[in-house]
Amino acid sequence: MRILSIETSCDDTGISILEIRGAKAPSFKVLSNIVSSQEIHKKYGGVFPMMAKREHQKNLIPTMKEALKESKLLKIKKQKTQKVDGHLFFDVKKILKKEDALFLFVKEFLEKYEKPKINLIAVTNGPGLEPCLWAGVNFAKAISFFWNIPIVPVNHIEAHILVNFLNHKSYIVNPKETFPIISLVVSGGHTQLILMKGIGKYKIIGETRDDAAGECFDKAAKILGLGYPGGPIISKLAKNRDPISIFKNRDRVSIKLPRPMINTKDYDFSFSGLKTAVLYSYQKSKIKNQKYIQQMCFEVQQAIIDILIKKTIKAAKNYKVKTIILGGGVSANKELRKQLKEKIQKDIPNTKCLIPDTALSTDNALMIAVVGYFNRTKKIAWQKLSVNANLRV
Ligand code: KG4
Ligand code: ZN
Questions:
Q1: Quick one: which atom of ligand 1 is closest to the CA of 212?
Q2: What is the pLDDT of residue 38?
Q3: Could you tell which of 330, 334, 358 is best to mutate to test the pocket of ligand 1, judged by most ligand atoms within 8 Å of the CB?
């Protein structure tokens, strides 16, 4: 079967096409996975939902064209049949009435190209920024209606987790050796520890009480004047830190940030105090040179990593899990990946660890297709599809 998937929950417009063969031991073939990142937010230091929605409306058709083309599924209609479906556009317009900028692009596309050989559409319907989610969902509805292809709604958080099964067939084939799992999902909007007893059997055992880990990276970067998104910039500067010269330098900078809630008994997190500590240190510091910034980046990153790893290992031990999964945009962080693997190796060496390729850590539509596959029997008619910005697993 082939799944076309759509992701628009935040500031990345993603379309992917995944081919799946075999039922019990599925083999996944990625035909395409196109992500069009919205550069516009960089200059504002954060994402404005309505601005992001407009960008999705502009990006969806070009991204889909590219995905279909790469999958060799983009075929121009024969001239004679072009006008046959004309009457359907009345309803397409109604479906897209809140996506007015999108309608003309969609109409032009549907008039010109043939229905591709796709069996299922998977689309993120939460959690995320509501206007952005609607752009993707309404788009999915329009093409589902026009092409008569069913839809599976997908939870974005579940997608950050299950994308890890893409290259690990054995984990699906041998659930007894895989579950229970502790998943740590760390993104711009979420920090959650999820206990999984099977696919679809989830319990959130802990989560952030305020800012998400990714948000902490982003806000710290903003305080330090480094731009958006903060995670990749902070990790780059942290790596360039030169501990020896900092130590030798007369103006040497010594920064020590707190690790909020690191020793609490529960599995919850709190990152807003860390962000405030960055702000106070920055305001107080007389030296704000490159060395200071690098040292601060190193500290912020290490504080976040320490907290995440401590709670994850504790949960893994207490629930006696067989596997730890890391997912979400922050899982692209090289130090977090490395230190988590090292800690597992040291403390619980029999526990497996799954982390996605860095390209699949941040938002993309391929992860949505993977959940679409696991939930393929949960397809619904386009009329029934809605959005839930606060959807939970
Ligand atoms: O999952 P994601 O792409 O979008 C949401 O669902 O929120 O996560 C985005 C978050 C941002 O906060 C970004 O700063 C963070 O992931 N991020 C990183 C890295 N790459 C992205 N954080 C730390 N290190 C990275 N290399
Ligand atoms: Zn995400």
A1: 12
A2: 86
A3: 330
For the cut 80, the answer to whether the pLDDT of residue 251 exceeds it is no
Tokens of 327: 């997912």
Q: What angle do CA 123, 125, 127 make, to 5 degrees?
A: 130
Site of tokens 């063969």: 21
Q: Do domains 2-160+363-384 and 174-355 have the same CATH topology?
A: yes
Residue 276 alpha carbon to ligand 1 centre in Å: 20
Can you say how many angstroms the Cα of residue 177 is from the centroid of all Cα atoms in its chain? 26
Domain residue ranges of the chain, discontinuous segments joined by +: 2-160+363-384, 174-355
Residue 166, token pair as written in the block: 């893409």
Ligand having the closest approach to the CA of 334: 1
pTM for the full model? 0.96
The closest alpha carbon to 151, from 126, 127, 120, belongs to 120
Task: Give the C-alpha separation, 366 to 152, whole Å.
Answer: 14
pLDDT category at 23 given cuts 50, 70, 90 is confident
What fold does the segment set 174-355 form as a domain?
A: Nucleotidyltransferase; domain 5 (3.30.420)
Residue range 2-160+363-384 in CATH 3.90.480.20 = no
233 and 300 Cβ atoms separated by less than 8 Å: no
The amino acid at residue 243 is P
Q: What is the percent of the chain with per-residue pLDDT over 90, rounded to a whole number?
A: 86
Average pLDDT on 224-244 reads 91
Does position 82 have pLDDT exceeding 60, yes or no?
no
